[in-house]
Amino acid sequence: MTPSDEILDIVDENDEVVGQATRGEATARGLRHRCAFIEARDADGRIFVHRRTATKLVFPTHYDMFVGGVVGAGETYDEAALREAEEELGVTGLPRPEPLFKFRYDGDGHSWWSYVYQVRCELPVKPQAEEVAWHTFLTDEELERRLADWPWVPDGLDAYRRLRAFRGVS
What is the distance between the alpha carbons of residues 130 and 30, in angstroms, rounded to a whole number? Predict the structure, then answer.
């Protein structure tokens, strides 16, 4: 099965399931679904940052400060957060990501309910080659300096700004 064939729950403006569709169909038709965003920090508190591969369905070759992805049909946000974090970081035995807040992303012809998490990854990472073209860990200050220079995924940038506000950082 390709990522386009993955079955997703389609949700309404209140995050209630109203149907199902393949990921490819949801993307092509702009159907609202669910996503999990996980801020992964290493033992030194640096943030995992990566550039998406050119083969990604949405926002290829853009940078992201979150790991994560779509929530599969019948899957909970919490289940998806752990699965996606372990897959993208290439680790097993990661602690369960801590849920922080949920918001609806609407932009660039896309719409999804997004749950933001945080997790500490003290394991050596081996990012998934199909998802991650390049990666590093950056301090908060280093990340801030790169925000204006690198092409970031718009949903991740929105989630990042909301996360800073959630933490009381301006």
Answer: 23
